[in-house]
Write a structure and sequence with these properties.
The complex is a heterotrimer of chains A (265), B (229) and C (253). With 229 residues, chain B is mostly helical. Chain B contains nine helices and no strands. Chain B is globular and about 70 Å long. Chain C is flat. Classes of the chains: A alpha/beta (265), B mainly alpha (229), C mainly alpha (253).
Amino acid sequence: MTLSRRILMAAAGAAAMVFAAGAAQADIKIGLSSEPYPPFSSKNAAGVWEGWEIDFMNALCAELGEKCSTEEVSWDGIIPALTSKKFDAIIASMSITPERKKTIDFTDMYYNSPALIIGPKDGDKDISPEHFKGKTFGVQVSTIHSNYVDKYFKAAGAEVKTYGTEDEAKADLAAGRVDYVQGDSLTLFTYLDSDAGKACCEAKGFPPDDKEVLGEGMGMGVRKEDTALKDKLNKAIHALSAKGILTEISKKWGLDGRMTIATPQ
Amino acid sequence: MVWDWLFTYWPQLLYGLWITLVLLVLSMVLGMLLAVPIGLVQVTGPWWLKYPARGFTTFIRGTPLLIQLWLMYYGLGQIFPMIPGLRHSFMWPVLREGFFYAVLAFTLSTAGYEGEVMRGAFLGVPRGELEAARAIGMSPFQVLRRVWLPRALRLVLPTLNGETILQLKSTPLAYTVTVMDLMGATSMIRQDTYRIYEPLIFIAVIYMFITFVITKGFSYLERQVPVKR
Amino acid sequence: MLRRGTDLGFRMSAWLAKALVLLSWGPAGYGDELFYGALRTIEISVLAYFLGLTIGALGATGKLYGPKWLKELLHGYTTLVRAVPELVLLLLLYYAGTDVVNTMLGGFGKGPIEVNGLAAAVGVLGFVQGAYSTEVIRAAILAIPHGQMEAARAFGMGGPLMARRIILPAMLPFAMPGLANLWLIVTKDSALVSVVGGIAELSLVTKQAAGVTKQYLLLYLVTAFIYLAITLFSNRIFNWLENMTRRGQRKLT
């Protein structure tokens, strides 16, 4: 019977394809977070990744003279994906924190920007922890902001809701399901400048810094044993800074002067 | 394998288990209550009930539950700012919570799948029994209440075990809309401890245990219902 | 009142225009992204489905004719998959699967391979499908009338020949409804891959597009209908296939 033979052959073919799919050649594999995170990384309507970090990545790979390929993975699984060797380095606006350093290693900081709290347009700009008692915070899961809100505001009586992506937290702020969102100031300012952001929300203020929780800026995550790769990436990051390329990229995205970038050395 | 996090996080896990079970029971009970009329109108209803019911079951069964859940949670959330006064209405405390949307989505899902099963069950009751009931002078409603529905429900009983387990397996989706069920608690532990496997293995075992209990419960229940052949 | 009416009409048409741009083909809209996302969903589903069928055929054979240890192993496999939520399995296998594969390769003295998003998604979904396929195919083989097998043996047919000429064609009519159902399940389960990320299938594309544009309602609604179209179209194909496998049989009443 030909039908049964065809089914068997199709099954064998499928199995072969799955195993063949395991091969892809590139010098460095970069892990990106699949969540939209404008202006740093998001997929535009043409289906192409764009943003400050995407330009940074391309400049970095050019500087290294190596071919890079990218792999997307959801944010809350990005560290496990790195340690299970799905890719070699993370570029996903990941802050260098003591807590994360227990699991993975980081390159030097390539950019830094303060945290920001936004909320509904009511003119009330009080951001003291006591003021948040009984209020609800929305944060992206596994972020420094989630840890910060837990440490300072949850302790003071605020409720915290965690989201897989920051845009979902913002959507719930617009819907009124949460009262405040804390996140990176640059992405939140970008949101406040958009139509959706203008309609609903305003900046409330910068929460006081806490290096222990908020970290020391964004670094590329690498596996602990990959020290050679880390040194190579560090060199390239500082070289990009020295050549003024990082400043150029910041200008292109309208972020120049609003963010700290890596030092030339 | 490191398990010391269990000592720190057991209250969250216990609460998560409670939420998972509440989600499961609420959506199964409410879903079944909806499934009966949805099945019935497809068999005997007027066209203006029959076609919407058929469209509903087709839509529910033809689309991923995850998309249905996101459509309700984020889709409706997008409309909220356009409705004046909603945030001060009595409904708001409910509409704020992801839990409500999870119950809603899971209930509608149960109603869709079980509605289809109920339709088959209503059709599966022998015609002669219904005619006999009519012949001894029962009103159509009495036939439904005393013969048709009880007989159909008995036909559905063996499928309920499987449906409940499938429903249990869908509950973790709720964590994508901020519900702190077992999966949500695990997600929190994963975030705090950077342990990947242990928390997931732990809840996998818990889900297997719940499945075991459900199966035992239903086989006990089935033994309690007398079957005449 | 009149002003209010035209205002509403204006807003409706403005919204409609916006929706059309959003869903248009090309760099300004997400129409093409959704389309390719749907193709990806179908690709993942087809590969996972056939991987599941392969596992299912082997698993059913093992469960029926294998040695005791294999039967017990397979029983453990099907019990596990049927009791643990797909999402939990997906997360576990997505990370652990790569580790296990690489540890095994390391044992053979080979370096780590890269398991890309597609292979991981297909592997995990196929693993889940395999358990259900095992049960469907096992039940279908058991449903074959005993006399047919005995007749084949009496003709002197060996195992492989009998499997090909008798068991496969005779069990297909029994297996078809179950297998059709499994296909519908895998197309819907593929949406779970979006929680892990890594592959631009329909749900992830929609999630990303909705996150950027904030048009959650419209985009999720459109995506739901794309899934529905896939389901309804598949139903047609499976009805045709079912009729094919039932050729020469009496119509079931």
